[in-house]
Amino acid sequence: METTHSASSQSEAYVIGIDYGSDSVRAVLVNAHTGQEIAQAVHLYARWKEQRYCNATKNQFRQHPLDHIEGLEATVRQVAKHVPAEQIVGLAIDTTGSTPGPVDEHGVALALKPGFEENPNAMFVLWKDHTALPEAAEINQKARTWGGEDYTQYEGGIYSSEWFWAKIAHVVREDEAVAQAAYSWMEHCDWLTLLLTGGELKTFKRSRCAAGHKAMWHESWGGLPSEDFLTLLEPKLGGLRERLFEQTYTADEVAGNLSEEWAQRLGLTTNTVVAVGSFDAHAGAVAGEIEAYSMVKVMGTSTCDIVVAPMEEVGSKLVPGICGQVDGSVIPGMLGLEAGQSAVGDLLAWFRQVIEWPLRALLPQSSALTPEQQEALREELSDKMMAELNKAAAAVNPDESQVLALDWVNGRRTPDANQALKGALMNLTMGTSAPQIFRALVESICYGSKQIVERFEQEGIPIKQVIGLGGVAKKSGFMMQTLADVLNRPIKVAESDQAPALGSAMYAAVAAGIHPDVVTAQKAMGNGFAETYTPNPARVADYQRRYEQYQAFGQYIEQATQLQAGEVAETELVNQA
């Protein structure tokens, strides 16, 4: 899928931002001086669409690198053809994270090597894969008790199963063949950048954003956690630290130039600069024109909340229960702080799957229609059904519905990561309707966001404005108005439809020397804001009351989860005895 706009004759420098999401990749070609979008293209991952290598019941979500490579070629070639290749001076990649994968000594992903092509453990472990719950629990327990540095302190004090070391430890324990064949491991954004530049694995510039937020990298203890700690966690991690990296680099720096092979494959030249990689939310925050003490909410399948603050003002302050605080992870020279929710679009998509099950199971098969036409008809009917549901949910009077939901269907990311938690509904009656349940799910997302804002402010990080971007922010006025009412704050919505890709393009423009720094690139290339949602005073007090009920409900479910986990552990000990 591709869209284009006329190229500006006033500039001869263009950059490409490439954004890898959970189910697709998109590339945007923009004027490096003005930010004008020239073309964009989107590619859906073929294997992911079939949910190959995934098992939702086990929270296993893996992606094959061929999906990423095919998407890279398809999208970049489409957008690059609109201007002369020599005028495309830079590109940059952002990805979801933490999404690590095993590689050989040359940086080749194991799933691209004979014998590993169909092995999920040899693929990239997507951010929302929670198979590493036990390993995350071990990291947290050992970081506090081993007698050395607490390596989780800059990660919010709680390490998540969504992150780098937990996933690696899980895979090497589960799969001896992968453990033996994996020379090293790379975050998705790093691997793709290495792929394009053709550099050496040992000297390649790793992402500060990825390493600081997910791999417990911090300069105060010399980079990554010590060899002693890692081998205490899992002996099979022995020696891996020295095969990873020591230094990290911000996303405005040059990782290298396009290799000759990839310049030909993408229709570009070897003069094109490739910037250091980053995560999608952090790049999106740059495009959302983030500034000190703004919170940019990147709202897609999940939500990442990004805040930046001057280093000299934060000092040694640590914010507990978030997803890390890293010098330069968003804007070089400023502290980047990350929080978020594990399911937003995914939560609403889950409910869609539930209510459309009869549609997919019982819609008559017609011999007059091809399988593709039948699927298109189902999608059309489902889209119409969801549009009506959204409209009806927006019309529900909150005073007349007591349905309350928890947004933890994929665990809780922040505050205080706990991926073992589950979603829940309460106050259902014989009169409860689908629109009421859908509204409760939307409200639960907003209550979860309010908890995050409160955590930052309780820890001395003021939130002076809130900015929304991403598919949910652009498409759901109902969601954004509810969020403004729950937070009792205005919410600006960024204009760009592809904000992470635009943010990556800004990084690329700095790396290519078009702009001296990221703040200057923001001012020159920013698209501004589409609209602002202001709180409805008539709703604020009621939502505050319901928010307190949400908190109490959450405490009950969390206690019940802990009790159940304890009972399971006790039963396992008895069985072992």
TrEMBL record:
It catalyses: D-ribulose + ATP = D-ribulose 5-phosphate + ADP + H(+); L-ribulose + ATP = L-ribulose 5-phosphate + ADP + H(+). Residues 14-286 form the Carbohydrate kinase FGGY N-terminal domain. Keywords: Arabinose catabolism, ATP-binding, Carbohydrate metabolism, Kinase, Nucleotide-binding, Transferase. Residues 296-512 form the Carbohydrate kinase FGGY C-terminal domain. InterPro entries: ATPase_NBD, Carb_kinase_FGGY, FGGY_C, FGGY_N, Ribulokinase. It comes from the Bacteria. Pathway: Carbohydrate degradation; L-arabinose degradation via L-ribulose; D-xylulose 5-phosphate from L-arabinose (bacterial route): step 2/3. The keyword Kinase applies. The keyword Nucleotide-binding applies. Gene3D superfamilies: 3.30.420.40. Its EC number is 2.7.1.16. Pfam families: FGGY_C (PF02782), FGGY_N (PF00370). Belongs to the ribulokinase family. This is Ribulokinase. It comes from Hymenobacter glacieicola. The gene is araB.
